[in-house]
Amino acid sequence: MSDSISKIHNKPVYIDNDPQDELFTLNLGPTHPATHGVFQNVLQVDGERIVSGISTIGYIHRAFEKIAEHRPYYQITPLTDRLNYCSSPINNMGWHMTVEKLLEIELPKRVQYMRVIVMELARIADHIICNGILGVDTGAFSGFLYVMQEREFIYEIFEEICGARLTTNIGRIGGFERDFNETAFAKIREFLKRFPPVLKEFEELFSRNRIFIDRTANVAAVDPETALSYSWSGPILRATGVDYDVRVNEPYSSYEEFEFDIPVGTKGDVYDRYLVRNNEMWESLKIIQQALDKIENEPKGVFHADVPEFYLPPKEQVYNNMEALIYHFKIVMGEIDTPKTEVYHCVEGGNGELGFYLISDGGRSPYRLHFRRPSFINYQMYAPMSSGMLLSDAIINMSSLNVIAGELDA
Amino acid sequence: MAKLDNQTVLHYLVKRFADDIHHVSEPYGLLTIETDTTHILDVLEFLKTDKNLQFGYLTDITAVHYPDLDKEFAVVYHVHSLVNNIRIRIKVFLDGNYPAIPTATVLWNGANWMERETYDFFGIQFVGHPDLRRILNVDDMEVFPMRKEYPLEDPNKVDKKDYFFGR
């Protein structure tokens, strides 16, 4: 019966007793509360079953690449904040490192370790959101609230370091704008103490939870070949079993000195993605602890490279010191010389390989800057992989992809 | 397996394509080559399928507009060999009147949206693309906004003009 209908209409039929084979068009989004952001998917559904879908994106496109062509390098950092706003510090650091690679600035070890701390804290904050929201979407709200408190604490650390919480604009080209103060270090140490029991509690709530496993296991399973063909990266690629992590493949900011594991999954389903993210949080804690230990052995008070032509001098010196005034003027007015060349630099963002392709013509702003945004590239498989899926599975599939609208649309 | 370096990759490419690979450079250690529209698909396919190279991962596709050059547009591919942990950048310069290049979606599914984005912002036609529509901008937009002739801001704004800075 179903085969014959299938031949006539040349499209898959899922429900045998539906004589008219009628499909219903469902607009999922752009502002549906279950999608956590501005995503529109026009779905053809047969009952609860999705037959096909079309993703429409670009609702919050802000032309960052065009704006970046008109701004000095240091003014592009706030733009990167607004890509993946769940882990802005990683974007900031990625951008700083791109420009430092262009200018061939070597940072002192202490600064690199400080950056590692900030980036790993951001990664934890990012994964907390994703896994917490995954819990909410499967109907378990309390786990989300437990871990959200810890994300709040991470934001307090960011606030201590740079003054901002969400869109951090943290650091500068050449280092940080100021040293971590004692409170910041104390809070990072406190976080290392208080977060493990909370994460453990979170795992106890979910990892062996029958309902959670029923909802997530074998949902949206992806094999590694398909994932690679769609250029997936980050936790969702690792959940399929491919151990590609930029931190290990092309270490930046001294990641090669740290001992940590790359968790990989086996089936690439929603449950695997959850496990990979959770385990990455444990690994991040290990990295932060090691970075704190390493900082102890470095000279105190070093928080930027000694590159006066690129790094803003302290404000009090600008008023009293001729050279500082000149450098201040040149940097602020964008008179710094940059090599005429091109550079690609990538970091492991919360969602995968976050790349910056920068072409410099020697001027004060990039000739061309392209962001390789993992959310954009990961999300394009969403509509094809949704066909055949139940609507409720498609929802948790979207939250486990952790697509951030800011990064998707740039 | 012996680690693959840029010279070895280049050696394989030159052996296969000879003069169709030109303008070789290595900015910051990333092998950069240029080729043309007739050979780009062969080059990409060779990189992807050759068992010594295995550049199986398409990192990114984008374009650059150089209004002063004869061939105005450069399409830039970043391809990554996860097995050998090495990257390569391939550029193809296109004519400004009708910029067109064969699609890479036949090799990678992931090229679909990357090419749509490139088309959306630069107007480059990817011949053979299954669904070449705008992706981030509105459908009825008539210009390709990342081209250099479209200004970002109000052109009457003068406070950041280059001539104030002796350029």
Q: Overview of this structure, please?
A:
The complex is a heterodimer of chains A (410) and B (167). Chain A is mostly helical and 410 residues long. Chain A is built from 18 helices and 6 strands. Chain A has helices at 2-9, 64-68, 77-81, 88-103, 109-137, 142-162, 182-206, 210-216, 224-229, 235-239, 246-249, 270-296, 315-320, 322-332, 374-379, 382-386, 391-401, 405-409; strands spanning 24-28, 40-46, 49-56, 342-348, 353-359, 368-372. Chain A has a 3-stranded antiparallel sheet with strand order 1-2-3. The termini of chain A are far apart. The model of chain A is unreliable at 1-11 (pLDDT under 50). Chain B has one domain: 2-Layer Sandwich (Beta Polymerase, domain 2), CATH 3.30.460.80. The longest helix of chain B has 12 residues, at 6-17. Chain B has 3 helices and 7 strands; from the N terminus they run H-E-E-H-E-E-E-E-H-E. Chain B has 167 residues and is of the alpha/beta class. Chain B has a 5-stranded mixed sheet with strand order 1-2-5-4-3. Chain B has a two-stranded parallel sheet with strand order 6-7. Chain B is globular and about 55 Å long. Chain B is 20% helix and 25% strand. The interface between A and B is large, with 45 and 37 residues.
